[in-house]
Write a structure and sequence with these properties.
With 252 residues, the chain is mainly β. The protein contains 1 helix and 15 strands, in the order αβββββββββββββββ.
Length: 252
């Protein structure tokens, strides 16, 4: 009985050892290769280094069926420091960003007023406002301040792109006839017309669902034009499930 247990434990131990050996074979090496030493992927390089191929690009470990593979040919080199050129696969030192603005260089998160390529360049609490020239890191814009999109505006505001230049505007504040770029900018009971101004709900041409669809007069859509329901079509039949087009004639 004791022998059976010992044999069973040995069998289990061997299986575990075999599995561990297989996983170890698939894992990249330790982070112990120094600058100038050859490497198969960045996992093999010491802290502050990466495994660069002949063009300076980062060689990353690749996911395999079990574990990871590390099979490139490169050299461990220092990560780029502040002011150095970088790219998606030319990494910066820890704590630095590869800034999205051109030319792309390593740098700290950018303060208000600094040029930016997108919001990833900016320090916490700032956005990359593309309405500014050049685009700059800035706090969220207030009502009436320039914006490049809704994400540039503070709470309760949206970017009114019908204006030149576009500015942030309070949601549901637009009176009838005022400029708009989506329904959310128009007062309750109004929608944003395709001509870019707030009109009463149901007006022919008024957008709804934030401009995805447009109001049309009943029976005004001719055969062969796009439709969503029968009552829109002059023929009285919209083949929405199949084509989204008004059918020719009232039969078939």
């Amino acid at each position: 009985m004791h022998l059976g247990k010992a044999m069973m434990c040995t069998a289990v131990s061997c299986a575990l050892l075999a599995a561990c050996a297989l996983l170890a074979a698939c894992e990249p090496g330790a982070h112990d290769h120094r600058a100038g030493e050859s490497c198969a992927c960045t996992n093999e390089c010491a802290a502050g280094l990466y495994c660069a191929d002949a063009t300076g690009r980062n060689i990353e470990a690749e996911e395999a069926a079990i574990g990871w593979t590390c099979e490139g040919e490169g050299t461990c080199v220092a990560r780029r420091i502040e002011g150095d050129a970088c790219d998606y696969d030319i990494p910066c030192a820890m704590g630095l960003l590869c800034l999205q603005r051109e030319p792309r260089t390593c740098g700290m998160p950018q303060p208000a007023g600094a040029p930016c390529g997108d919001v990833r360049d900016c320090a916490d609490g700032l956005v990359c406002n593309t309405a500014l020239v050049p685009p700059q890191c800035a706090p969220l814009a207030d009502d009436g301040e320039p914006c490049g999109g809704d994400s540039d505006c503070g709470a309760g505001l949206a970017c009114n792109r019908s204006l030149a230049p576009p500015v942030c505007q309070a949601l549901h504040s637009g009176a009838a006839g005022t400029g708009c770029s989506d329904d959310a900018l128009c007062a309750t009971g109004l929608l944003c017309h395709t001509t870019g101004h707030c009109v009463a709900e149901g007006t022919d041409g008024a957008a709804y669902y934030e401009g995805v669809s447009t109001c049309v007069a009943p029976g005004s859509v001719e055969a062969g034009a796009w439709c969503a329901r029968d009552e829109e079509c002059s023929s009285g039949t919209c083949v929405a499930p199949e084509t989204g087009l008004c059918r020719q004639g009232t039969c078939g």
